[in-house]
Design goal:
The protein has 373 residues and is mainly α. The protein folds into 2 domains: 190 residues, no CATH class; 117 residues, name from scop (3-Layer(aba) Sandwich). The chain is 62% helix and 6% strand. It has 14 helices and 5 strands. It has a 5-stranded mixed sheet, sandwiched between helices. Strand 1 and strand 2 form a beta hairpin. Helix 2 runs antiparallel to helix 4, helix 2 crosses helix 9 and helix 6 runs antiparallel to helix 8. The radius of gyration is 40 Å and the shape is elongated. It starts with 15 loop residues before the first helix and ends in a 13-residue tail after the last strand. The model has no long low-confidence stretch (mean pLDDT 79).
């Protein structure tokens, strides 16, 4: 079990913040075997596709180099131009293959860990004691094992290939020059590809090993987790975000309960209070939603498709808003006023007189001490 400098065991998985800080320092999952495999497979594919044309182009360049005009060879002023042209032609021939390898080298890290940019010198790398510890660490032993395994596997495959393709390789000497060169490039491409395939096995072992090693290195002690939690909770922006999320969650829950309301008491524009009451199971009406201005409008819009009656009573709406709590029964001092509203709504519903329009009730008995202007 990994331990920190204080001797505490690192038993806890890394937090997102710890992982982000490690990535910013360049500590990400890396598998050299996976990148090497991608490079080798790209080179093999490039040789198979571009090999014949590349070999023929190189042969043509060699022919031109050996057939130079004697005047150019003896004229020292023309030598730089001749060599420069030869270099440009050679670069033009190799550009497709080199471009392919460059693209693979740039995109290879994206497969595991992604790109990281970190500047800074790590002085602990100069510590000889830590260097010896790294030399005999289990990760170093794993790297040694991978190197020996790669050598044995690739050497075995190479010997087998030479044994199987010996007649084909020996027959190349009997072919004309240009066909032999093209055939050689094709054979080299396939041989290179087959020699690369064993690297799939090495990479298949190395990638999970590197992921587990990375996660193990990022582990934290229980104290580090507690300290980070305290640090995060103490930040004003984190507290603000938590409050916003809590408010949003509470508002969503409140809006979900609006369809259960029996009546909306409105101001009619600035205040809206939604009440729910079941005489058989409830001792008093309960406030299921309330709000002012924009929230009041949202409550009315949410209630509209469910045909919940709206009663316009400014005094009662303000009294309910300032003296009631969400999901709590209304205060006893407002029983009479709310009972008058509910009885009137029930009578209209019974007589089928509700037409969806707001109902004005300005004479409800709101106690003077609860009235808010």
């Amino acid at each position: 079990m990994a331990e920190n400098e204080d001797g505490q065991e690192r038993t806890e998985e890394a937090t997102p913040r710890r992982a982000q800080e490690a990535a910013e320092k360049g500590q990400v999952v890396r598998s050299r075997e996976l990148t090497t495999l991608a490079m080798l497979l790209g080179a093999a594919a490039g040789l198979l596709i571009l090999g014949p044309a590349l070999i023929e182009g190189l042969a043509a360049q060699m022919h031109l180099g050996l057939a130079l005009d004697s005047k150019k060879i003896l004229d020292s002023n023309q030598i730089p131009a001749v060599l420069g042209q030869a270099f440009v032609d050679l670069l033009r021939l190799l550009a497709p293959l080199l471009g392919l390898m460059l693209v693979i080298a740039l995109l290879g890290p994206l497969a595991l860990g992604g790109w990281t940019f970190s500047l800074g010198f790590k002085w602990d790398r100069l510590d000889p004691i830590k260097g010896v510890a790294r030399l005999f660490s289990w990760q170093s032993l794993m790297e040694l094992g991978k190197a020996l395994a790669k050598f044995m596997i690739v050497a075995s495959v190479a010997v087998g290939l030479l044994w199987v393709r010996e007649p084909e390789l020996l027959h190349l000497g009997k072919e004309p020059l240009l066909p032999a060169l093209a055939h050689t490039a094709q054979a080299l491409g396939w041989i290179f590809l087959i020699l690369t395939l064993p690297m799939i096995l090495i990479a298949g072992v190395d990638v999970p090993f590197q992921i587990l090693t990375h996660l193990r290195q990022l582990r934290m002690t229980k104290q580090e987790v507690r300290d980070e939690s305290k640090d995060n909770e103490g930040k004003p922006e984190v507290k603000g975000r938590i409050r916003r999320l809590q408010q949003e969650f509470a508002q969503r829950r409140m809006m979900e309960k609006v369809p259960t309301a029996d009546v909306l008491i409105t101001n009619p524009t600035h205040y809206t209070v939604a009440l729910h009451y079941q005489p058989d199971t409830m001792s008093a009406p309960v406030v299921v939603a309330f709000g002012i201005d924009h929230m009041a409008l949202r409550i009315r819009e949410r209630a509209a498709p469910h045909h919940i009656p709206q009663v316009t009573s400014p005094l009662l709406a303000r009294a309910l808003y300032y003296n009631c709590a969400l999901d709590k029964p209304i205060p006893t001092s407002l029983y009479a006023a709310v009972a008058q509203v509910l009885s009137y709504i029930y009578r209209l519903r019974r007589d089928d007189l509700l037409d969806g329009k707001p109902i004005a009730m300005s004479d409800v008995p709101v106690p003077p001490d609860l009235r808010t202007q």
